[in-house]
Design brief:
Length: about 250
């Protein structure tokens, strides 16, 4: 089943996030797609309650690596579990850019999230330096090596990867299907090498960057990608339901 993640970023009040959830939870596609919503921290609890028994999962956009303590402004994996989260984004490109997160931070967050029973979605592929050298895939190997550093093979098996090339995030210019598949293939190869896994195909890889209801077919129709991470096109609930319908072929 394809995974479709809706990343609200810094959008929506609690009431708006709950309205969105009611509309999406009532759509007929949720039993044929693994949909996960990532609201702001402020709306997590209310959205969990609104989801109720619907087949919609919830995750947070970030997490800190400690369980508790004097870490002002941080939110721990246990606190995320407490408000119903099953997933968490780690090292999204905007966290790297605005909060200066490093691959070493990502590694700590991945370990902490997995330790608390959360499924992390590790975002990678946005390396301006590498892109400037004309190779959008060049940054992937260090993001994989550092980010997965210190994780056991079993822990690596819990990580979902999201290939998000910087030029495509929020720009309206999605990667070509070839670029997205090349990114996913490079991630699978890199992960298999690091974890000594024989089956690179077991690694789950999403594509993110200017995904819309009109281009999902290009990414999911040909194998090689397990789902999508959607920002802008997830914000309006009707548009997101249309996107889900396109994913399941409805
Ligand atoms: P976008 O965002 O769909 O608006 O490009 C994707 C993301 O940042 O995850």
């Amino acid at each position: 089943m394809a995974m479709v993640a809706a990343n609200f970023k810094m959008h929506k009040t609690v009431a708006q996030a709950c309205d969105w959830t009611r509309e999406v939870a009532g759509s007929p596609w949720l039993d044929r797609v693994e949909a996960i919503v990532f609201p702001s921290f402020t709306a997590l609890d209310a959205v969990t309650r609104t989801i109720g028994g619907a087949a919609l999962r919830i995750g947070a956009q970030d997490v800190f690596w400690e369980e508790a303590g004097a870490y002002t402004g941080m939110v721990s994996p246990l606190q995320l579990r407490d408000v119903g989260c099953s997933h968490v984004l780690v090292a999204h490109s905007e966290r790297r850019r605005y909060a200066h997160e490093t691959d070493a931070d990502a590694s700590r967050k991945l370990r902490a999230a997995i330790g608390a029973g959360l499924r992390p979605i590790y975002c990678l592929g946005d390396d301006p330096a590498a892109a400037g050298r004309g190779d959008p895939l060049a940054g992937l190997s260090s993001q994989l090596r550092e980010g997965l550093g210190g994780l056991t093979r079993a822990q690596i098996g819990q990580v979902i990867f999201a290939y998000e090339p910087g030029f495509a995030i929020g720009t309206g210019r999605a990667a070509s299907p070839r670029e997205a598949l090349d990114g996913a293939a490079a991630i699978r190869k890199g992960v298999a090498a690091i974890s000594q896994a024989e089956d690179a195909g077991a690694v789950r890889v999403l594509y993110g960057g200017s995904v819309t209801a009109d281009n999902v077919h290009a990414f999911l129709g040909r194998g090689g990608l397990d789902g999508l991470l959607v920002g802008t096109a997830s914000l309006e609930p009707g548009e997101f339901v249309r996107l889900l319908a396109a994913v399941v072929g409805g």
